[in-house]
Design goal:
The complex is a heterodimer of chains A (315) and B (287).
Chain A (H helix, E strand, L loop, with lengths): L1 H16 L1 H4 L2 H26 L8 H17 L4 H23 L4 H19 L11 E2 L6 H22 L3 H11 L1 H6 L4 H27 L1 E2 L1 H4 L3 H13 L6 H19 L3 H16 L3 H12 L2 H10 L2
Antiparallel strand pairs in A: 1-2
Chain B lengths: L1 H31 L6 H19 L7 H18 L9 H23 L14 E4 L2 E4 H23 L1 H11 L1 H6 L4 H26 L7 H15 L4 H21 L5 H15 L10
Antiparallel strand pairs in B: 1-2
The chains are: A mainly alpha (315), B mainly alpha (287).
């Protein structure tokens, strides 16, 4: 059974990696944005799904990664790779500086504090001359979608392997312990502050790398698009829809929801946003533990599964 | 000096409006333990409702406030009874998520229904003002401030003195005990949420008379309402007035002395600071 799963995943990976050689240009572009969204969902999974700290401000890391690449390439004429490293450094510094105070907050307070941070960053960056202020930065164009696609896929594989490592390492068990009972974890000898900040930073690294790739691919960024608040909506919904705290859930969630929203928005443009909202509302009511849990439990309870979820949480 | 006084006056007038915005959020949070991330979107809907009443039926925005508030109350009651009651007992994150989803839905529906154009409610007295020595006080803002204070104090009296108010407070303290004394929680939760959304609608109507409205104002207003509720604490509606005034004055000072784009930075900076230093609010009890 385990070997079969592994084989299936490898096959899917090969099919995905070969896509630029048999798919159309439109499909490759759709693939890049879907893979990057999957990275964001997977990055959120580390802090939100495994550590239990629902960050509504991960878009900050995305913006920092994007600006890291843009500033390095446009203002300092450095290569793309150096820009990516610079973006990651920015994200890690941010995760430590602001993570230390903000991660002391719990529940609603943490969620809203991160939401507020995300809103503040766009305003701050639009006042920094180095970052091009309100006007933004234009990066040197590189017309090579195949490269961007493979980079995004490699990043997603790396993020997913990291999350897989979490499920079987001391660090990962520490995070899960914090999610289940933070005081208990501290009593058992988990350095909760360090673990939380490390998880925040790790989540930020992947998000920043995705932001960097996206910036170079689109070749333009301004504060509004780099620190787009609605990115938080998407990454959280995708992770929650697929199953937070599972290895493949966020990836499946991102693929499924991106595909459906792409089909919908080709019919009516503004309907895609509405669709995301309706999916969250329905998912929270009917399947709060995501697709992963539906698959696991649907066999035993059938359609009653959805009614049971409502029964468990209603007044 | 005159400039400074004028900035303070602007801040205080803005603060009153902010207080009403936060009032409904604080009520729902305190009683239902739901931080309603769609609160700002409901304010936005209230503003559009007021705008329609004024533009198509010619109803003065201040006289139309009760209509807006009652219609929004009905919407809030229905949302809680039909949807949110289904997940009230779920973990905190799920309630955040579902109201987040509601915010997205309301914003996009508003965009489809009302278009993304900026709207303003412009009654005949919109440009009128009162001069107090060197100070200028815009009439519409002063009226909005007055209504805001009346609503907030009225809310306080309502919670303290009426039967329903007592039931709401009892439920906030202990749901099981309140149930034993005959409170029907499904109805009471819906009433509380309805009142919260009704207040959001009234706040929206007031907002429309002093500022521009578009479908996207919701998220910022939610965050500001949250900041005010945190600064003021959840125990007492009068704390919200303090929170609103603090935020209004800080914003006015920042916009005047640092730069217009820093207004939101200041208010959210204050939010993060207060959260870190004193999560139970300036007036709240220490944890």
């Amino acid at each position: 059974m385990k070997g079969l799963w592994l084989l299936l995943i490898l096959l899917a990976l090969v099919a995905l990696a070969a896509l630029p050689w048999y798919g159309s240009d439109v499909l490759v572009q759709f693939g890049i944005s879907t893979l990057l969204l999957a990275v964001l969902a997977q990055g959120w999974n580390i802090i939100g799904g495994y550590t239990g700290y629902a960050s509504f401000g991960n878009s900050v890391f995305y913006g920092l990664g994007a600006y890291g690449v843009a500033i390095a390439m446009v203002q300092w004429n450095l290569p793309f790779g150096v820009g990516m490293v610079f973006g990651v450094v920015l994200a890690v510094v941010f995760a430590f500086l602001l993570g230390l105070p903000v991660l002391r907050l719990r529940g609603h307070y943490f969620a809203i504090a991160t939401l507020a941070l995300a809103q503040v960053m766009a305003a701050i960056v639009s006042n920094i001359p180095l970052a091009g202020q309100n006007i933004g930065l234009v990066l040197p164009p590189l017309n090579n979608d195949r490269l961007f696609y493979e980079l995004s896929l490699a990043l997603l594989v790396l993020a997913t392997l990291t999350v897989f490592w979490l499920t079987r390492s001391k660090f990962g068990f520490g995070l899960i312990a914090i999610r289940e009972n933070e005081e208990g974890a501290a009593v058992m000898g988990v350095n909760t502050t360090l673990y939380k900040v490390m998880a925040f930073a790790l989540s930020g690294i992947f998000t920043a790398l995705a932001g960097g790739i996206h910036a170079y691919w689109i070749t333009f960024l301004d504060p509004e698009s780099a620190f787009d608040i609605s990115l938080n909506v998407k990454m959280i919904i995708m992770a929650v829809f697929g199953g937070p705290g599972t290895v493949l859930g966020p990836v499946v969630g991102a693929f499924v929801l991106s595909a459906v929203s792409e089909v919908l928005s080709s019919e009516v443009t503004s309907i895609a946003g509405l669709f995301f909202g309706i999916v969250v509302v329905a998912a929270v009511v009917l399947m709060p533990r995501g697709v992963a849990d539906v698959i696991r439990r649907f066999r035993t309870s059938g359609w009653r599964y959805f009614a049971e979820n409502i029964k468990a949480h209603r007044l | 000096m005159d400039l400074f006084a004028q900035i303070l006056v602007n801040g205080v007038l803005l603060g009153g409006l902010y207080a009403v915005m936060a009032l409904g959020l604080a009520l729902v949070w305190g009683v239902l333990n739901i931080v309603n991330l769609a609160h700002g979107a409901f304010i936005m809907l209230g503003a559009y409702l007021s705008w329609h009443l004024y533009t198509y039926l010619g109803i003065d925005p201040f006289l139309g406030l009760p209509i807006t508030a009652i219609l929004m109350f009905c919407l809030g009651y229905a949302v809680q009874r039909g949807l949110l009651n289904l997940i009230v007992r779920a973990p905190m994150f799920n309630t955040l998520l579902i109201t987040f989803g509601l915010e997205v839905v309301l914003t996009y529906l508003a965009q489809i229904a009302f278009s993304a154009d900026f709207r303003t409610i412009n009654p005949s007295y919109a440009g009128a003002h009162i001069s107090l020595g060197p100070l200028v006080i815009p009439l519409a803002r002063l009226m909005a401030f007055g209504v805001a204070i009346v609503l907030t104090v009225g809310m306080w009296v309502f919670l303290l003195r009426t039967r329903l108010g007592r039931a709401i407070r009892a439920t906030a303290q202990n749901l099981v005990a309140a149930r034993l004394y005959g409170v029907e929680p499904r109805h009471l939760y819906a009433m509380t949420f309805g009142i919260g959304i009704g207040l959001a609608g009234a706040a929206g109507g007031l907002y429309g008379t002093v500022s521009q409205i578009n479908p996207y104002i919701g998220a910022t207003l939610t965050a500001k309402s949250f900041a005010i509720a945190i600064i003021g604490g959840l125990e007492n509606p009068l704390g919200v007035i303090v929170g609103g005034l603090v935020l209004g004055i800080i914003e006015s000072l920042t916009v005047a002395y640092v730069g217009a784009t820093f207004g939101d930075v200041a208010s959210f900076g204050v939010l993060v600071l207060v959260l870190i230093v004193r999560p139970s609010g300036i007036l709240g009890k220490t944890a």
